[in-house]
Design a protein that fits this description.
Layout: E1 6-11, E2 14-22, E3 28-33, E4 47-52, E5 55-61, H1 66-69, H2 72-82, E6 89-91
Antiparallel strand pairs: 1-2, 2-3, 3-5, 4-5, 4-6
Length: 103
């Protein structure tokens, strides 16, 4: 079974601006801290959400391809382990109050 290797690019000026990269594919995900910054989903990308350490996160693909879409959850699980919250629940619906639920 193939295992992806994920890398993280961080912004030293903003800890909420991580980007997850897959080493061997073109998958890239932006990480947003929903408690600290605005987030407006790009309808051309895939968004997933998670909660860890009482913080809400949004993960949004960057120029996603159909081949990379299957690795998004694995990348988020890797990130959850990186932030020491491997039990992060990953959901497709925006958990913020007043947000529309995806159908």
């Amino acid at each position: 079974m193939k295992h992806n290797v994920f890398l993280l690019a961080t912004d030293p000026k903003n800890p909420c601006r991580d980007v997850i990269y897959a080493r061997d594919t073109s998958l890239k995900l932006r990480v947003f801290c929903l408690d600290n910054e605005p987030f407006h989903p790009d309808m051309n990308e895939i968004q997933l959400y998670g909660k860890a350490h009482n913080k809400l996160y949004a993960f949004e693909s960057i120029d996603v391809t159909s081949d990379d879409a299957l690795d998004i959850v694995e990348a988020i699980q890797w990130y959850a382990g990186y932030i020491k919250c491997p039990e992060m629940n990953i959901v497709a619906d925006d958990p913020r109050p007043g947000r529309n639920i995806a159908i």
